[in-house]
């Protein structure tokens, strides 16, 4: 299909992928770019991209992402564009036993000239934390600090990018849930929304995040874009604690998957485990097999925020190993936050094999947010047919699994058991 700058482009989903794609297309002179989002409030409260913080790291075992992340970090630092969305706290990766992902990430960070401190013993590790903070890590800990990294106030970044898209003449329409792809003569011509609205387009970009597979069952994306619920815990610190922990780096252990942020402006700390997570397999019209479907605050109210009790316990155990003085505090709330996972952690960007008029831009696999300023460039290159052949293959919808070390712990996601979800009482120590 020949896409030109006067083509009508419809983007489904106003998260990291959809907004960044719109932004880069508009910068390249596209004039008719519309984003629709199912949520009546955008940024959607349950979108993966809407959050108090996300890690911004270049520490990747795959040098492609390490390089792209460094470009994103350079962009994040432009305060005229992003205000104080980005906080360069540094990212500390401990090494506790063998961990080939961290080893390879270190090699890549060094090769790309990142500001690295190699921490060869426990006292060196302690020295990168503020003096008043008690660290529980064992004596054999080593690791490294990458000063070129930190975290982003994720929702703020999304809001800022929405404003940029609007300023460039893009349209963003809330409260439009796409429920059907419209076809004529074997090719997709537009979409229909749950309220009956129809949008015609020359090209449809599906960037519906963890809802992509369940929203479009006929595209058979259930395994390639698997929705997995990830367990997040948040704690309210006192102002004194907030001051004490403020200058901590992001803590990111690829071995256990546990990571934690320094307190934000409201003295809230967020922690999670980067793992295979949980599925919620539900029957889907037009698909013979069930498809994992997000369960969130929008679908289930406050219940949709609850994580399995066992995961809450694990978070507390991991917290105790790093910051023992916080380990007895109550959690303020939890969130089941949904990744869109490909089997190899690489994104899915490219035309759907059944129809070149459908372009996928998704499968963040738990690590796409940091690329908000630049990821749309990759999608725009794909749309304009100028993506490098190696990247076409890397991100192709119908690729064979790419082989590199994945960052994730655990093998298979587990099915959510609703009677095992934590209750408000479980949040107390
Ligand atoms: C717990 C957690 C922690 C993470 N931590 C990090 C991190 O530290 N660093 C990092 O870089 N990345 C991180 N990520 C990954 C990152 O958040 C995602 O890769 C990224 O935000 C995905 O963006 P998206 O556009 O694909 O999806 P989303 O942001 O979820 O956006 C999808 C949008 O599509 C809309 N939509 C869905 N279905 C429809 C429909 N049928 N019709 C219309 N609209 C629809 C939704 O309302 C939503 O607004 C994390 C993710 C989670 C869940
Ligand atoms: C770590 O790797 C070394 C060398 O590859 C090996 O000898 C050792 O048994 C490994 N240790 C663990 C805990 O896996
Ligand atoms: C710990 O490692 C640092 C370098 O990372 C070194 O300067 C220091 O001497 C080491 N300390 C001990 C006790 O080995
Ligand atoms: C489908 O193809 C027929 C024959 O080529 C054409 O007349 C018709 O306009 C096409 N319909 C659409 C919606 O493109």
TrEMBL record:
Record SUPFAM superfamilies: FAD/NAD(P)-binding domain
Pfam families found in the cross-reference section: DAO
Domain of life: Eukaryota
GO terms, molecular function: flavin adenine dinucleotide binding; L-pipecolate oxidase activity; proline dehydrogenase activity; sarcosine oxidase activity
Residues forming coiled coils: none
Residues in FAD dependent oxidoreductase domain copies: 9-381
Regions crossing the membrane: 6-26
Necessary cofactors: FAD
Record InterPro entries: FAD-dep_OxRdtase (IPR006076), FAD/NAD-bd_sf (IPR036188), MTOX (IPR045170)
Keywords: FAD, Flavoprotein, Membrane, Oxidoreductase, Transmembrane, Transmembrane helix
Family: Belongs to the MSOX/MTOX family.
Name by which UniProt lists this protein: L-pipecolate oxidase
Organism from which the protein derives: Grifola frondosa
Source organism phylogeny: Eukaryota, Fungi, Dikarya, Basidiomycota, Agaricomycotina
């Amino acid at each position: 299909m020949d896409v030109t700058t006067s083509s009508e482009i419809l983007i489904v989903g106003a998260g990291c992928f959809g907004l960044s794609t719109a932004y880069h297309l508009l910068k390249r002179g596209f004039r008719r770019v519309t984003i629709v989002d199912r949520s009546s409030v955008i940024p959607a409260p349950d979108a993966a991209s809407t959050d108090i913080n996300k890690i911004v790291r270049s520490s990747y075992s795959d040098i492609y992402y390490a390089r792209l992340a460094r470009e994103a970090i350079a962009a994040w630092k432009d305060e005229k564009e992003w205000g104080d969305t980005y906080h360069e706290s540094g990212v500390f990766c401990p090494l506790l036993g063998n961990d080939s992902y961290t080893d390879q990430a270190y090699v890549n960070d060094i090769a790309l000239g990142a500001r690295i401190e190699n921490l060869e013993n426990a006292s060196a590790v302690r020295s990168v934390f503020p003096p008043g903070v008690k660290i529980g890590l064992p004596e054999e800990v080593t690791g490294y600090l990458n000063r070129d990294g930190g975290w982003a106030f994720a929702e703020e970044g999304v809001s800022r990018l929405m404003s940029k898209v609007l300023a460039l003449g893009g349209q963003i329409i809330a409260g439009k849930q796409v429920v059907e792809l419209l076809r004529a003569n074997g090719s997709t011509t537009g979409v229909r929304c749950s309220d009956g609205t129809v949008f015609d387009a020359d090209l449809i970009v599906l960037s519906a995040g963890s809802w992509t597979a369940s929203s479009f069952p006929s595209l058979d994306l259930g395994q390639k874009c698997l929705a997995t619920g990830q367990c997040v815990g948040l704690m309210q610190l006192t102002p004194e604690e907030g001051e004490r922990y403020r200058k901590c780096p992001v803590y990111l252990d690829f071995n256990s998957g546990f990571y934690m942020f320094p307190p934000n402006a409201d003295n809230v700390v967020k922690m999670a485990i980067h793992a295979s997570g949980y599925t919620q397999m539900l029957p889907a019209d037009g698909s013979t097999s069930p498809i994992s479907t997000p369960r969130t605050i929008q679908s289930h109210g406050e219940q949709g925020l609850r994580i399995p009790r066992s995961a809450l316990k694990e978070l507390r155990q991991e917290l105790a190993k790093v910051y023992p003085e916080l380990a007895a505090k109550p959690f303020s709330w939890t969130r089941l936050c949904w990744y869109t996972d490909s089997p190899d952690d690489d994104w899915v960007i490219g035309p759907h094999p059944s129809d070149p008029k459908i372009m996928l831009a998704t499968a963040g696999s738990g690590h796409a947010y940091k690329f908000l300023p630049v990821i749309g460039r990759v999608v725009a290159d794909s749309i304009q047919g100028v993506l490098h052949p190696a990247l076409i293959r890397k991100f192709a919808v119908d690729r064979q699994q790419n082989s590199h070390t994945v960052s994730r712990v655990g093998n298979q996601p587990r099915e959510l058991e609703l009677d095992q979800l934590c209750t408000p009482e479980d949040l107390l120590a």
